[in-house]
Amino acid sequence: MLVSIYRYNPEKDQTxxxxxxxxxxxxxxxxxxLDVLHLLKEKDSSVAYRRSCREGVCxxxxxxxxxxxxxxxxxxxxxxVKKDKLVIRPLPGLPVIRDLVVDMSMFYKQYEKIKPFLxxxxxxPAIERLQSPEDREKLDGLYECIxxxxxxxACPSFWWNPDKFVGPSGLLQAYRFLADSRDTAxxxxxxxxDDPFSVFRCRGIMxxxxxxxxxxxxxxxxxxxxxxxxxxxT
Amino acid sequence: MSRLRTLNYDAIVIGGGGAGxxxxxxxxxxxxxxxxxTKVFPTRSHTVSAQGGITCAxxxxxxxxxxxxxxxxxxxxxxxxxxxxxxxxxxxxxPQAVFELDHMGLPFSRTxxxxxxxxxxxxxxxxxxxxxxxxxxxAAADRTGHALLHALYQGNLKGGTTFLNEWYAVDLVKNQKGxxxxxxxxxxxxxxxxxxxxxxxxxxTGGAGRIFQSxxxxxxxxxxxxxxxxxxxxxxxxxxxxxxxxxGIYGAGTLVTEGCRGEGxxxxxxxxxxxxxxxAPNAKDLAGRDVVARSMVLEILEGRGCGPDKDHVLLKLDxxxxxxxxxxxxxxxxxxxxxxxVDPVKAPVPVVPTCHYMMGGIPTTIGGEAITQDAxxxxxxxNGLYACGEAACVSVHGANRLGGNSLLDLVVFGRxxxxxxxxxxxxxxxxxxxxxSDIEMSLSRLDRLNSSTSxxxxxxxKAELQKTMQLxxxxxxxxESMQKGLKLLDELGERIKNVHLEDKxxxxxxxxxxxxxxxxxxxxxxxxxxxxxERKESxxxxxxxxxxxxxxxxxxxxxxYFPNEKRVGKRDVNFAPKTVEAFPPKVRSY
Lengths: 234, 590
Fold this sequence. Notes:
By secondary structure, chain A is of the alpha+beta class. Chain A is 32% helix and 13% strand.
């Protein structure tokens, strides 16, 4: 199989380039893209990429594979390879540090901006704060986010305004706290988001939904936030 | 002055997983100038992969639940070499630590009463007199580790913790007195090497499952803290005790939570028989993990394995129904489809015992202070060095950890280490500064690698190491074969000293990090091998074909491995809890 991989080492390359490498894929095995990267690295140890859990829960290896963002460790070749060719690039829209490793500071900054922690100004009880199963269910589809950045880096609005638009991942997390019955800072959270950019730059393109490796739906969460902001202003 | 830039902190925590972040949070909140040094962004740490839950007597599922019952289960689970004062501490302060996580925002699953949902897990009873299965494992569906790690990261963001993300700790720095005074660390992004100076250095570096070929552990679990401590000459305890989780997905090694069996799933052999009924008539599939793993291997060895090669068994879940599986085990359904190409709603999942957890580690006090022994075998505190979580051996897991106890260990002892350091710093710790040559010493390993011109391939040697450990130090062990394994390890040691780093560039050079990790894997593997050969009995996870019985007369002890002499000594197990009577050793049956 032909693998075309994005290469850039700031210490020796003037510009990034695509390197074509032929890889022998063992017969009868449906490897994951991450396995292919391991095979590449055995041939050329200078190839750089992030990886950790290799089971789709840590969010380290978000990459662009044949044009679509996803996690290398849970993307089987059978799903992504076309005409015996695989093109691997770093997540689009973020500065590249080296090869497939991007600088995620902007992405994390947007996450931090939404105050991604529970705020509750009432004194904590001696046990847990009670929450009904129905209220807890509201967090399903939100808390599972692994911060892999596949969604935000697939979003044209985030490419355009990565400093001002929170992006699908950050907004999914914003809603995760807005929806938590144990949180008391709803108004403060909404006030923080109430500007033309933070939420309203979302144009409903839904690339985020189509690439999320955890099957989450940031567009839906953004819709909920929009509604809350509208209600707040009337 | 040294050729390195120096960063100065009161405390540094190495590792951004559950234990490290809980310690960092405690320290930051108490105003101690702290940095958390982590080789991956914190939410990429291996805690994220924990599934089933955190075991703790919060009395939600059973209002009469009692932390003493949890303590009893843990002591029994440890096959009686868990330290009872530490287990008492963990089980009794556990509820407070779990409620803190809820207050931090952890989205636990809930009961109708609005309390935290608890599920049954292996080895849980209602105390010494009542073997009834308890439900004591607090869960956020089957993503408890993910929920816990993110909640802790969020808590640390709120608290304003300083993180050095994607920094790799290379080696400890010791002063002339042998006190630990910080680490040499590399900023992975730039390649800059720095001396991070600290009064307290906490090893929260997690496990080292990657010493085995087949493991549930993340690729980053390379025993960096254990490796650093061993290279610095500090001992490691109970290193022969490695847990093989009964249910790793066949072929891939990814974990399938014990919660599957807690929710009613069970194991079957090629004859469709629920074989655990024979091995553990009372607890069946929820016996201790060591017991279940061994039973599975025996079924396979006796020809009742499944598949064309008869080399695994099956975990049956379909009878639980689609609704329960989607509500309680959504992550498992996902993993099983991805890695086993099986939908648990329709068909059983192929599983095999897979290396999962290191019960051993750096011996510590309850407050995380690292322990060594003097020439007379008397415990001594190592100044400046602390450990918590899987990297430490405090020891609450002894010879076999109970499911759900690792997450509790993380938060309880991460917090305890933070409290201890805060106290010590308030009382005033001062160490002599490291001299230029002390720092040079800690740089020697890195210098050798950076100046290598030819030698062994990192990937090849690593594969050899993992194969050797799998073959000679797996679920069942035997003296002769372990001696053979040790000989192979000696040979590998020579090759590892000669690993060649081809790519010498600075920016995000993962080849350099992997080469450094390999040496840590080797330190841990070697300590494991020597300790396993030395312990001439079967206890907990350490099962020998040549010494099949537990030997309380000689081995109701911790093993303690001294790296400089490559010698294994013995250390007393604590049988003196403070508020309850000690649980005396009994025959362990489920």
